[in-house]
Design a protein that fits this description.
It is a single chain. By secondary structure, the chain is α+β, with helices and mostly antiparallel strands. It has a single domain, classed as Double-stranded beta-helix (4-Layer Sandwich). The protein contains seven helices and 16 strands. It has a seven-stranded mixed β-sheet with strand order 1-2-3-13-5-15-4, with helices on one face. A four-stranded antiparallel β-sheet has the order 11-7-8-16. The protein binds N-oxalylglycine and manganese (II) ion (MN). The site of N-oxalylglycine has 11 residues, from strand 5, strand 14 and strand 15.
Length: 284
Amino acid sequence: MKVKRLAHGLGAEVTGLDLRTDIPASTVADIRAAWLQHQVLVFPGQDIPPESHIAFSAKFGEVDPVSFAPRFRHPDHPEILVISNKPQKGKQSETRNNGRQWHSDTSFRLAPGTGSLLHCLELPDFGGDTMFTNMYMAYDTLSDVMKKMLEDLWAVHDSTNTKDARNRPPEVLKELRKINPLVAQPVVRVHPETGRKALYVSEGQTTHIVGMTDEESTAILQFLFAHSVEPEFIYRHRWSQHDIVMWDNRCAMHLAVRYDMTKPRHMHRTTLRGEPSGYLYQAQ
Ligand code: OGA
Ligand code: MN
């Protein structure tokens, strides 16, 4: 296995592996170490069936059967979330605009997913990229005064906050809110494996800072959202068919860049269950 860095911000490419095969424990440990170090790993050329995608994912934790959004489950593989712009069951796909704002997957859960593994099955000739940003760097580059102010703050995360989610039919919003009640998460999260601090707020899913007025909260969050996506923190992935990209949601955010949606783009995602980091938020 070879690991090659892809950007100043984060990301590395991992080659020399066939993810259809049973990867030995020592290699899994090497991949895990590379994942913790680089936050985003790209495995190119993995023309593998869903069973192998799921089995490989399971080497890194328990695969969540899309408990946070069962309606987007793959009909034959409950562990897979389908992100596609192709009609599903004869209707326009509900996931065609997933991830258009910066976010960390399932940050709106009490125990957000540690990682996500996205497999590209079909893509346009150009466009349909995914961007990633390094939230350790975003934290590290704040002033000591700002770090101190953020230290003990909590912020509310809402699965239905994204512009895309807000456009969904009311019954879908109701379902998603019921499955995912509001939670508060630390604004600065300590990564349970690396011990490093990372910013943990996102434009897509964070609505306000607990205890602040709307004016205070908006001003600070707007600054943090903008600061989190400074160009030097970012890796932009231009997909090739059969890439698997595995990222760490505890210290990276991502965004699905808009493109010409008349061209098919079809992806499968697995999500790894994580440890509790938040508490149930009761609106005042
Ligand atoms: C995701 C997501 C990005 C993309 O899979 O979690 O946000 O580019 N997708 O499809
Ligand atoms: Mn996502």
